[in-house]
Amino acid sequence: MNKFNFFTLLLAFTIVLSACGGSDDTDSTSSEGEGATESTSEETADGRWEEIQESGELVVGTSGTLIASSFYDENDELTGYDVEVMREVAERLGLEVSFEIMGIDSMLPAVQNGRIDVAANDVEVTDKRKEEFNFSEPYKYSYTTMAVRESDNSGIETLEDLEGKKAGGGATTIFSQIAEHYGAEVITYGNAPNEAYLSDVSNGRTDVVINDYYLTKFGVAAFPDFDLHLHPTLMFHPTEQAVVIPKGADQLTEEINNVLNEMREDGTLSELAIQFYEEDASVMPEGDIEVIEGLEL
Q1: What are the domain boundaries of the chain?
Q2: Are 234 and 160 in contact (CB under 8 A)?
Q3: With 70 as the cut, is the pLDDT of residue 160 above it?
């Protein structure tokens, strides 16, 4: 991928702090009412694979706003690691694929109420989410890091140093939960671009942005004139990203897992990860990554 075009695109999109870690407070009920999730009971959901085969199409929810994972390129074509992984999965399953563009807050309920078959948007697997969804085997592994001021690391050398700091982020994301867990004040922006979050760290309005390593790496690189860098030593909260599948849709889960395993074995996952992330995000990262205790994720 042409790096100039990649970073040019990056300037146009938001840093989607809620998309990668996601909100663990997501309302899992659909707009049809509290009983709507029962429409995808395990008995119904387990027939999803047969329904998909009959239709000949796999409908995938994604955001189209998450650089490297799901975004529109300079030709206004939807692409990204998650998108191309799902295109390959569908092809190997003998299916057409279509993508429904939506935000993460509506994406997970859409899996439950049957509007889409699955979701692929750098969604983190958590214990709470596993109570409500099936997940495929992970196709991406990552961890969490910080964008801080290069001149002084924003005064943050340990996670405990977050106490009293200001962290730019979404109101209910996992990343904001981490900031609050250590006593930081979360400054929310709404649907703001990368530049707003990162420039505020650089100019001192805030102190830190906590986010996925890969996404933060590209965000920081897009603004070389800012007093900003990835924190040089802090690596924490290891993560796994996977396809979100209706709860109880076990046959569909098995079919997707079989293809993902094939793609891992033949190197396709690695090739796609390196294409979009410039590193092999399909394997667990090396290094001592701190696990944060006491978070109910």
Answers
A1: 3-139+242-277, 142-237
A2: no
A3: yes
